[in-house]
């Protein structure tokens, strides 16, 4: 594809995305990209910026995702919103990962995770994405493509399985080994599926999704084996956000990563709770690469 | 020997795995959106020649292997050991016969081979891509066949058997491709 055609493809794609949301009365927003607090996510690093060097030196951080800033809007009565923006991540490696990429993030009030997945299917359909849609729970995916009972297998059992597959077992926490097993045993099997939602993650990988028993209401979308989107039935209570953040901060300390502070401004904006909603982040370049 | 972190992995880097020196032939990094990056590495075991795959978490470190590849001249073998010489230093290295399984049939005295040393001990030998060998046994050829339409097995002076054209007779020298064990001409 020549330069002009590639630009038109992207332009047309973004116009269709905006049309999709406009029809549903989802409002486009733009939130700050330069933040006071870095992300607490254990395996995502913010890019730090030193600003105001001539006045009063101060550290700021490029956003790794617009999630918290958009949740501030949701907590203050924004209603359904979406955003298309560049996000920035430090220490990214691998052929599919970059320090800067474009993210589409959107939130639908009153939706549960499955309603949001249906909404995404409609969006993809409008964008011309073809192919059968599969939906597999995280546990089903492991049963289907391995013989691992991922929700009930303990750390030692998973280590034995990992060793059998010549995979590293050098992990502090079970979730990191679950993720490695998923990446190396399950993901390659998803390559034959054009569109596959994996949902109901183990509670150990809840991130900022609601947890019920041993299950987190979180999903990911894979297209031909490539991770495209990550969504949650969003946590609501500010107290639980606080617990999740401090859990992540503690893990970063154990791993010897740069120490980070919680985003106090986010917590105070949330007041007591976020309205019930589901949200998703979609990697635009990866999605575009799958549309022909 | 130094340890190497996964961030230093690249093709050709030599590592110790399960006690054997291995060479990286492919290094693929995967980083899930939520979760740690990992390196899926394909390696060649330099002792057994086998290819293996191993996955490390990003940041893990692995012991390096002190492996060197040197051009050396093959001198002679005494039945149990094979003698090579570094033409720059004149250092001589003796290699045990059982390490020579795959290459024994391609070694011609005075030829320059690549010898792989691990901790200064030779572990494998790679002969030149083409070697000149002498036919010591083969069926008589058919007169007039010069097109090489058919072929026949011929035993070389080194003991290996190579498929050669029908016109080749005992006592002739032929060129053999050591990577494919195929006849590659007469000069």
Task: Describe the structure concisely for a colleague.
The complex is a heterodimer of chains A (292) and B (187). Chain A contains nine helices and twelve strands.
Can you offer a commentary on this structure?
The complex is a heterodimer of chains A (292) and B (187). With 292 residues, chain A is α+β, with helices and mostly antiparallel strands. Chain A has helices at 3-23, 67-75, 113-126, 138-145, 155-164, 174-190, 238-254, 264-270, 284-289; strands at residues 27-28, 34-35, 48-51, 58-62, 81-88, 100-109, 133-137, 195-202, 211-212, 215-223, 226-233, 277-283. In chain A, strands 1, 5, 6, 7, 8, 9, 10, 11 and 12 form a 9-stranded mixed β-sheet that branches. A 3-stranded antiparallel β-sheet of chain A has the order 2-4-3, with no helix packed on it. In chain A, β3 and β4 (58-62) form a beta hairpin. In chain A, α5 (155-164) packs across α6. Chain A is globular and about 55 Å long. Chain A starts with a helix and ends with a helix. Chain B is mostly beta strands and 187 residues long. Chain B is built from no helices and 16 strands. Chain B has strands at 3-5, 14-17, 20-30, 38-45, 51-57, 61-63, 67-77, 81-85, 92-96, 112-118, 121-126, 130-138, 152-156, 161-164, 173-177, 182-183. In chain B, the strands form 4 sheets. Chain B has a 5-stranded antiparallel β-sheet with strand order 9-8-7-10-11, with no helix packed on it. In chain B, β4 (38-45) and β5 (51-57) form a beta hairpin. The radius of gyration of chain B is 21 Å and the shape is elongated. The chains are: A alpha+beta (292), B mainly beta (187). Chain A binds chain B through residues 41, 43-44, 92-97, 165-168, 170-171, 175-176, 179-180, 182-184, 187, 205, 207, 220, 227, 230, 281, 283, and chain B through 7, 28-38, 40, 52-58, 60.
């Amino acid at each position: 594809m020549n330069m002009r055609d590639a630009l038109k493809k992207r332009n047309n794609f973004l116009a269709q995305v905006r049309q999709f949301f406009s029809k549903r009365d989802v409002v486009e927003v733009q939130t700050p990209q330069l933040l006071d607090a870095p992300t607490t996510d254990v395996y995502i690093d913010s890019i730090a910026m030193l600003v105001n060097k001539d006045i009063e030196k101060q550290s700021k951080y490029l956003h790794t995702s617009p999630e918290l800033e958009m949740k501030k809007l949701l907590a203050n009565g924004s209603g359904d919103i979406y955003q298309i923006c560049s996000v920035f991540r430090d220490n990214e490696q691998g052929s599919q990962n970059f320090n800067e990429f474009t993210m589409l993030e959107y939130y639908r009030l009153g939706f549960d995770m499955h309603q949001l997945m249906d909404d995404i299917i409609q969006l993809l359909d409008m964008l011309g994405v073809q192919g059968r849609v599969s939906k597999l729970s995280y546990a089903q995916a492991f049963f289907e493509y391995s013989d691992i009972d991922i929700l009930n297998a303990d750390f030692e059992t998973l280590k034995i399985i990992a060793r059998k597959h010549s995979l590293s077992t050098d992990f502090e926490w079970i979730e990191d080994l679950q993720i490695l097993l998923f990446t190396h045993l399950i993901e390659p099997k998803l390559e034959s599926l054009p569109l596959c939602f994996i949902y109901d993650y183990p509670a150990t990988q809840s991130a900022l999704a609601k947890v019920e028993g041993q299950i987190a209401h979180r999903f990911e979308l894979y297209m031909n084996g490539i991770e495209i989107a990550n969504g949650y039935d969003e946590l609501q209570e500010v107290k639980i956000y606080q617990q999740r953040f401090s859990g992540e901060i503690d893990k970063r300390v154990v791993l010897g990563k740069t120490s980070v502070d919680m985003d106090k401004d986010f917590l105070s904006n949330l007041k007591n709770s976020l309205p019930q909603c589901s949200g998703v982040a979609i990697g635009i370049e990866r999605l575009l690469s799958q549309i022909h | 020997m130094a340890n190497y972190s996964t961030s230093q992995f690249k093709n050709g880097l030599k590592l110790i795995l399960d006690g054997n020196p291995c060479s990286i032939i492919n290094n693929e990094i995967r980083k899930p959106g939520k979760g740690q990056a990992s390196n899926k590495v394909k390696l060649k075991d330099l002792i057994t020649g086998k290819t293996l795959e191993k996955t490390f978490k990003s940041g893990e470190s692995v012991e390096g292997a002190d492996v060197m590849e040197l051009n050396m001249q093959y001198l002679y073998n005494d039945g149990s050991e094979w003698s090579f010489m570094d033409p720059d230093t004149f250092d001589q290295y003796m290699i045990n016969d059982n390490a020579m399984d795959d290459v024994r049939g391609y070694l011609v005295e005075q030829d320059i081979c690549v010898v792989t040393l691990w901790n200064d001990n030779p572990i494998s030998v790679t002969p030149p891509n083409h070697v000149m060998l002498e036919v010591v046994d083969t069926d008589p050829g058919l007169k007039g066949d010069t097109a090489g339409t058919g072929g026949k097995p011929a035993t070389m002076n080194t003991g290996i058997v190579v498929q050669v054209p029908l016109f080749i007779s005992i006592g002739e020298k032929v060129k053999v491709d050591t990577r494919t064990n195929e006849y590659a001409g007469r000069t």
